[in-house]
């Protein structure tokens, strides 16, 4: 029998498989896991004060590190608190290994207060779920969880760990299990799709998933340049590489009206690692399916296939001698005067540091951001893949853990900030280089817009009250300082620029409460 | 065809069934519900910035109002964010009517970003779940939901409302449906249990649920006084009436060691609306079942039965001429000097106002509270029924909405506060009379204790790091002020007393950041 307990075998196996960070919000049933951290020096434990921060940080970490972090969650309610950001991770195809502590196997029969149906909640994520009932199996189950999380294209794996499996003696480590890699697209499909581009009819190419990195973007740009096809990135990519020296490919719009404009006249939609365009929500009397009438959809690659390779093969057929169109280095001039939805993005474009990571939850405030940053130095942008708000601060936190040498910029709307605000405390604790620009428009501005768009009788006082965040105004400077993050307030473009430069120059987290009126 | 849309028929039906408050965190799919609020003046909408505040407030509201509130939640992620406090509500047998908006029925096939398995998550609550697919059925489904939530002993009912069912025309209201009332315990059981008390062996009576109100407490006290039985209240009652003029019945301890002491020598455990004692968590080598060896368990009443009536019938058999033992009015003297885990509770006991509601999430800091408040003016105490922390601030919020004329005191540990801290903003917005005493010991103190109790190798630096909240220290004065709640800091008993008196005297919410060292 080994000298490891279950928790020790688990953490050792995770580390051997390359999982080196565990974002944690533990409780009593996880205490042996917590104690075991001191026996495996390679595993870093990062504490968060709420599980939505834990799971969002794991999402942000993996989007940047290209490998999973672990989470440590306390029974069903802990998993529930983390569920919204796991939903976003599911949509991002992010590999995450959840370790959810549970009551000891023999204790479950007593239906103690924290007993609940963990499998049902974990199962809603449509990932991988296993309960590790016996100490000797914990290592093997952990290795299986890591592999499952990394099976192309990536997903959420949840390992339920009963307390007695964790504390029991006789734990056995397990060697890493190779995950299922992305399969190549067959040659016939490549050839057929290449012919669509060559047929002389208007084509839109919609790319997503792993094709949103440099190689995929270059292939897509070559295809567009050679064939005249329009090319778009999916509306909410998990990670999009952008900036000077990379192809600047427009994202498909969030609003159906935008998409209709973008796809006007298109006869063929080729999707590569993305879904055919659908409306984010349904609206009375408007179509959900945004593929233009009469247009045909062709799938080049599913999200779990080798999208970039397939795109490159198509490009080699239709654009053999064509170079991609790359964005030139170009920054907007620094604006002046009171902050507006139009000018704040120019401050970002003017000052974005080299190699930055943007965690974007600016929502309506950020509609003009892409233009302002297209020629900025090369950067990654992470977006809200699943629509569950409260993602920005945690994802920025995890990204900063994954890339301590890169500046992380969290563009964060006020309405979404309060879901996971304690991420600021973890940023302070870990001294992470995260600069949060808090876009404080004192409203659920997107819902004001949506109230009109769904055709609901607009503007009753009670309805408007539920979309208003100005009574009382939140003071994000005080909230941030209360959590240990230095903070300032900007009401003019000059102030934002000055404060942003200072924040980027100083190590550790900063928050700028940017008072920007609503766009609409 | 009626002139109502689905949302209007829903809200009208809820109001007709007595549901007059909706705690809401809406999104696009709920916009017709939001718009419909202006057509039904009797329904009050209360906005929260996070769904855990919504569901916890609904729990607190119903514990005080004795009838359900509605919640308004945004698809699966919104329900997920609310799940932990719904878990607590499930354990409290609190009636709650969740309205979870979903995509339009015809939109679900497109698997848009926010699509997820709402039924799976709602089903984990083991309550009532229904999807209302057709506008004309929404009213009837709403009436069924209200009834289901109130079926004895009370539970969480979740109505999933597709956007097109909400916005469709032809909604029909539905008259209230009578819920299933608590059934009487049969006479044989009452007689058999009465004989247990009369048999001359040591008996412990454990009461819970609805028996924790005055009438049940009086019956239990009479039985104890007449027969010499020990009597206990379940460890975490949903609502316990206490104070001068009521029987002061000790609660069963949280720690197994306490329970073993409390039940020492007992041969019969009679349960009435409570479960037989079990350990909250399992611990290596320690029993989960806390019924003393050889003792027999007798069930007088299940939680869904008429517990109080059954207790009164037993009392009439075994204690016909015995009066209950009532707590005398008695307050501790106001202490002085630096705050300690021992003296802060005396400040509460000395100053608790008449008819207060205490939302207690003091955790380890509150171990000495019951003694200090036993002779205070009559009050209700609400406790953490399901063990999912982050309950105190939302429950206090909901209780204050239910009882605007009663002072609400939230005793709140720091570690638990950050889960649902934005409840403070809702308290400010609604000008609720909630006084929060934030017990700031800068640690997950309960986990420090549990790390020892589970026998985990204690005290490695990484393990201790994950239980420490002092790096950085949180400044709850700033956090509260940032959310619009006036706040002060107390480090001495004198300061706490002075600030508490001021907070109780002024209308609206207040927070006192009470710096109290850990008990252990």
From TrEMBL, chains A, B:
Matching InterPro entries: DHS-like_NAD/FAD-binding_dom (IPR029035), THDP-binding (IPR029061), Thiamin_PyroP_enz_TPP-bd_dom (IPR012001), TPP_enz (IPR045229), TPP_enzyme_TPP-bd (IPR011766)
Ranges of residues in domain Thiamine pyrophosphate enzyme N-terminal TPP-binding: 5-109
Pfam families (UniProt xref): TPP_enzyme_C, TPP_enzyme_N
Sequence ranges assigned to domain Thiamine pyrophosphate enzyme TPP-binding in this UniProt record: 377-513
UniProt KW Metal-binding keyword: no
Keyword list, A-Z: Thiamine pyrophosphate
NCBIfam families reported for this sequence: PRK07586.1
Protein family: Belongs to the TPP enzyme family.
Protein name: Acetolactate synthase large subunit
Protein source organism: Amycolatopsis nalaikhensis
Lineage of producing organism: Bacteria, Bacillati, Actinomycetota, Actinomycetes, Pseudonocardiales
């Amino acid at each position: 029998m080994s000298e490891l307990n279950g928790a020790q075998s688990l953490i050792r196996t995770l580390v051997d498989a390359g999982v080196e960070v565990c974002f944690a919000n533990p409780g009593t049933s996880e205490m042996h896991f917590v104690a075991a951290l001191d026996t495996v020096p390679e595993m870093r434990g990062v504490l968060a004060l709420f599980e939505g921060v834990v799971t969002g940080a794991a999402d942000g970490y993996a989007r940047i590190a290209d490998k999973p972090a672990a989470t440590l969650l306390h029974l069903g309610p802990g998993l529930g608190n983390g569920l919204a950001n796991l939903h976003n991770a599911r949509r991002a195809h992010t590999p995450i290994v959840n370790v959810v502590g549970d009551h000891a196997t023999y204790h479950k029969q007593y239906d103690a207060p924290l007993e609940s149906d963990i499998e049902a909640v974990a199962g809603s994520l449509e990932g991988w779920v296993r309960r590790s009932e016996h100490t000797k199996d914990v290592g093997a189950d952990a290795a299986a969880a890591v592999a499952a999380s990394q099976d192309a294209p990536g997903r959420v794996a949840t390992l339920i760990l009963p307390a007695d499996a964790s504390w029991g003696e006789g734990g056995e480590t397990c060697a890493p299990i190779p995950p299922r890699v992305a399969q190549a697209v067959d040659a016939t499909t490549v050839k057929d799709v290449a012919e669509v581009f060559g047929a002389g009819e208007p084509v839109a190419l919609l790319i997503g998933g792993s094709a949103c990195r440099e190689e995929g973007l270059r292939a897509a740009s070559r295809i567009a340049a050679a064939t005249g096809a329009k090319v778009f990135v999916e509306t909410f990519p998990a990670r999009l590489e952008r900036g000077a020296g990379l192809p600047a490919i427009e994202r498909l719009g969030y609003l159906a009206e935008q998409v209709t404009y973008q796809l006007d006249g298109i006869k063929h939609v080729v999707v590569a690692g993305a879904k055919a365009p659908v409306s984010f929500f349904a609206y009375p009397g408007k179509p959900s399916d945004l593929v233009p009438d009469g247009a045909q959809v062709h799938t080049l690659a599913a999200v779990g296939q080798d999208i970039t390779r397939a795109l490159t093969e198509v490009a080699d057929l239709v654009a053999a001698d064509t170079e991609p169109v790359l964005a030139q280095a170009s920054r907007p001039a620094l604006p002046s005067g009171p902050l507006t939805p139009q000018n704040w993005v120019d401050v970002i474009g003017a000052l974005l540091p080299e190699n930055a990571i943007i965690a974007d939850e600016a929502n309506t405030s950020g509609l003009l951001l892409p233009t302002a940053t297209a020629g900025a130095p090369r950067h990654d942008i992470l977006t809200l893949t699943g629509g569950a708000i409260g993602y920005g601060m945690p994802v920025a936190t995890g990204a900063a853990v994954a890339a301590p040498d890169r500046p992380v910029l969290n563009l964060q709307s006020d309405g979404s900030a309060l879901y996971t605000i304690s991420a600021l405390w973890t940023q302070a604790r870990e001294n992470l280089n995260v600069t949060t620009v808090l876009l404080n428009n004192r409203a659920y501005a997107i819902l004001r817009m949506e109230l009109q768009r769904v055709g609901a009788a607009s503007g009753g006082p009670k309805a408007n009250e539920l979309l208003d965040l100005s009574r009382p105004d939140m003071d994000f400077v005080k909230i941030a300082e209360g959590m240990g993050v230095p903070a300032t307030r900007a009401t003019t473009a000059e102030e934002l620029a000055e404060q942003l430069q200072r924040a980027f120059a100083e190590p550790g987290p900063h928050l700028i409460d940017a008072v920007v009126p609503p766009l609409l």
